[in-house]
Amino acid sequence: MLSVFKRELRSYLQSPVGYVYLFIFLLTTGYFFWSFNIMGNSTDTASYFSYTRYILIVIIPLLAMKLFPEERKNKTDQILITAPISISQMVLGKFFAAYTMFVIGLVPTLINMIFLSTVGYLEVGIAAGNYIALLFVGAAFLAIAMLMSALTESMITAFVLGAFSLALFAVADTVSNALNITVLSRVVSVISVTGRYAQFNQGLFDISSLVYFLSLAVIFIFLTVRVIDRRRWS
Length: 234
Fold this sequence. Notes:
Layout: H1 2-14, H2 16-38, H3 46-64, H4 69-73, H5 77-81, H6 87-106, H7 110-119, H8 124-150, H9 155-179, H10 182-191, H11 193-201, H12 207-233
Helix pairs in contact: 1-2, 1-6, 2-3, 2-6, 3-8, 3-9, 6-8, 6-12, 8-9, 8-11, 8-12, 9-10
């Protein structure tokens, strides 16, 4: 797994994908910080983190779209599948490499919080809770987008499928509320990422929501392993 992790992380750092991801993420989060906190003359981070969560719908598929289609393009997928490591180790190596890039993108945003703490009162607990929630949501979103990447041979298709899938999880509760169907609303409230994340945005630390995000990640990583394993025997 470690060899796959190092190989994939090196690939991010030696190709435009990793830098495009970092540029877009830091540019958009910087814009949110400028709009809501600097221009708004506020130390309230609720809007900043709320919009940052939504940008994950676009940038995480950008990270995941190359994980498997690139292997097929370079004709190295069969080498990986038949390598002396398990499919699970290979998938986890790729997942953790992409997740490391996600975390690398988050780290510089801490400067925004440090700045707010020096010029005014920063609710550290809320900020910390949001960062923890982002780490777990990021893992869940990445696992979902990775499965979409494993299902196609095209990076563009993988990106579109990933973004669409993440959007479903992010806006499902909004759609169900608009339809005003009680049963549907109850079901969606259980699986809604937005509803669960909103608790952290309001300063409530909910362990069950973190377990849910982690469970999503585990389920979709497992599904990715099954897809790749099935391809090996096909």
